[in-house]
């Protein structure tokens, strides 16, 4: 299914701006924020506005097309929409996908509360930054 058909299947009008935003997220696996997406796409789409980018990302996230990654003061976006966890490096700020299975928690109760999913973010020093430190 191409992007146009995919958006239509979610009842989202496939405007060129929406298509480009979705395809940007599919090809940039770096978990960009809205400002980064806007700064890159404005070169091809001169009429694009930052609020269109925000609204489109919200709409995609609400329809399950993309994931939102909520860090302390920022929200990042991810075109890979399957459940997975994230890791943010405290030094370079890069956002990584990490595979940790929390299925053992699913449907369990903690303090009487039923667990459906885990949305936390892991933080630390990424493998690249560790290597740079060792070289010094
Ligand atoms: Zn790093
Ligand atoms: Zn991710």
Feature tags:
alpha+beta; Dna Ligase, domain 1; Arc Repressor Mutant, subunit A; 2 domains; 5 helices; 136 residues
Describe the structure.
By secondary structure, the chain is of the alpha+beta class. The chain has 2 domains: 3-78, Winged helix-like DNA-binding domain superfamily/Winged helix DNA-binding domain (Arc Repressor Mutant, subunit A); 85-135, 2-Layer Sandwich (Dna Ligase, domain 1). The chain contains 5 helices and 7 strands. It has helices spanning 3-9, 16-27, 34-41, 50-62, 127-135, and strands spanning 67-70, 75-78, 85-89, 95-98, 109-110, 113-114, 121-124. Strands 4-3-7 form a 3-stranded mixed β-sheet, with no helix packed on it. Strand 1 and strand 2 (75-78) form a beta hairpin. Helix 2 packs across helix 4 (50-62) and helix 3 (34-41) crosses helix 4 (50-62). The longest helix has 13 residues, at 50-62. It is globular and about 45 Å long. Bound molecules: zinc ion (ZN) (2 copies). The site of one zinc ion has 7 residues, from helix 5.
Bound small molecules, deduplicated: zinc ion
Sheet-strand content, in percent, reads 15-25%
Mind describing the biggest β-sheet?
3 strands, mixed
Main structural class: alpha+beta
Write down the secondary-structure element order. HHHHEEEEEEEH
Rg, rounded, reads 17 Å
Helix content: 25-40%
The CATH superfamily of the largest domain bears the name: Winged helix-like DNA-binding domain superfamily/Winged helix DNA-binding domain
CATH topology of the largest domain: Arc Repressor Mutant, subunit A
The rough form would be described as: globular
CATH architecture of the largest domain: Orthogonal Bundle
Overall tally of domains = 2
Compute the separation of the termini in Å: 48 Å
Number of helices: 5
CATH class of the largest domain: Mainly Alpha
Q: Please list the strands of the largest sheet in the order they lie side by side.
A: 4-3-7
Number of strands: 7
């Amino acid at each position: 299914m191409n992007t146009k058909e995919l958006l239509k299947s979610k009842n989202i009008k496939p405007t060129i701006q929406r298509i480009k935003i979705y395809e940007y997220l599919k090809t940039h696996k770096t978990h960009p924020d809205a400002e980064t997406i806007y700064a890159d796409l404005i070169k091809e789409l001169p009429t694009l506005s930052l609020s269109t980018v925000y609204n489109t990302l919200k709409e995609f996230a609400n329809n399950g097309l993309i994931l939102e990654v909520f860090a302390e003061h920022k929200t990042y976006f991810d075109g890979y929409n399957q459940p997975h966890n994230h890791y943010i490096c405290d030094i370079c700020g890069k956002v990584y996908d990490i595979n940790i299975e929390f299925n053992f928690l699913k449907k369990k109760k903690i303090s009487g509360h039923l667990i459906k999913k885990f949305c936390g973010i892991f933080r630390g020093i990424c493998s690249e930054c560790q290597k740079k430190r060792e070289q010094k």
